[in-house]
Design goal:
Length: 237
């Protein structure tokens, strides 16, 4: 009986805390990333060196660097660069995932928190050698010779960005943004992004693209409010 009362009290306290946190943490930063001007040409990748890759992509395929559709700029990593000093955030229990599929990394750009598990899959029936090149965490270099093989890794320090390459297929690359906060997003096919659940405050938001470079903006998020940060990249910027 006593235990039951205690449990009920604990549950109520947890609900009260959750509600309190909900109202104070409901801010967000939304925006769209645009590429103004003629989109740079996408590189044609030849995969004939590996028959399994060629079979997945007959005649090769275009690279993932400049994915621009009607100006909407995909695969731009947008994150809170500054404004969270002194705050700590729980590491998600859910792992982040990256797959090797059709001899390309999928996704090409993603974010993860320091200490969060990264599940690396091999969806291909061929040898990939995943080679991560962080400068602030330990590098790793793992052969993944079989389809459906999985390895798990973690990063120990924030770093934007950590480059991944495959030592077997030189066209393969991915970029992983490692942060000590959960406030990041990757622009989608329509160029939009949303960074959710930001505490009220003033922040520097950076938009990072592997070839187009970086841009920053200052935003202020109020309780329950949302701020907008649109970014426009130009040729040669
Ligand atoms: Cu590979």
């Amino acid at each position: 009986m006593k235990t039951g009362v205690l449990r009920a009290t604990t549950a109520l306290t947890a609900m009260a805390l959750a509600c309190g946190a909900g109202s104070a943490w409901a801010g967000s930063v939304k925006g769209k990333v645009t590429f103004a001007g003629d989109p740079p040409q996408r590189r044609q990748i030849q995969m004939s060196a590996d028959p399994k890759c060629e079979a997945a992509n007959p005649g090769g395929r275009l690279g993932d660097v400049y994915l621009i559709n009607g100006g909407a700029f995909q695969n731009v990593f947008v994150y809170v660069k500054d404004g969270l000093a002194g705050k700590t955030f729980p590491v998600p229990a859910e792992p982040a995932e990256i797959d090797q599929k059709g001899c390309m990394y999928s996704p090409h750009v993603l974010g993860i928190m320091v200490g969060q598990e990264l599940v690396i899959k091999n969806g291909d029936d061929t040898l990939h050698n995943v080679h991560a090149l962080p400068e602030k965490s330990k590098q790793f270099n793992n052969a993944m010779p079989m389809k459906d093989m999985v390895i798990k890794k973690k990063f120990t320090a924030p770093e934007v960005m950590v480059r991944f390459k495959c030592d077997v297929h030189p066209w393969m690359s991915a970029f992983i943004g490692v942060l000590d906060n959960p406030f990041y997003a990757v622009s989608g096919a329509d160029g939009t992004f949303e960074i959710k659940n930001l505490p009220a405050g003033s922040y520097t938001i950076e938009a990072w693209h592997e070839a187009a470079g970086t841009q920053t903006q200052q935003v202020t998020v109020t309780d329950d409010g949302s701020a907008t940060a649109d970014f426009t990249f130009k040729p040669g910027s």
